[in-house]
Write a structure and sequence with these properties.
alpha+beta; 1 helix; 21% helix; globular
């Protein structure tokens, strides 16, 4: 139950922050993607660079597939909640994702 709420919250935040970014460039939503895992994953921030690449940050626990497309990029937390940064191209395709963390 908690996992579903976290996933819904993450997707809602992703959509909430992506709409103003792309509304500045056009009048409609250009794309939306989702990603997540089997446990705790939360998005904290979304931004773009001058080339239109999208960066997302957040935290996760367990294993998360960071590729929103047909591919797979599973990253497993090193312990506790780990942080992540992810880079998507202007079309929402994964370029890379990195994580950092461990047991304290």
């Amino acid at each position: 139950m908690m996992i579903q709420q976290v996933r819904k919250s993450f997707l809602s935040l992703l959509l909430f922050f992506s709409i103003p970014i792309y509304a500045q460039q056009s009048l409609g939503l250009e794309w939306a993607v989702s990603m997540g895992g089997t446990s705790h994953d939360i998005g904290y921030s979304i931004t773009t660079d001058a080339l239109g690449n999208v960066y997302t940050t957040g935290s996760f626990y367990g294993t998360v597939d960071f590729d929103p497309g047909m591919g797979t990029l599973n990253i497993t937390s090193a312990g506790g909640d780990d942080i992540f940064i992810q880079k998507l191209d202007p079309n929402g395709n994964l370029i890379w994702a990195k994580s950092m963390g461990g047991d304290w």
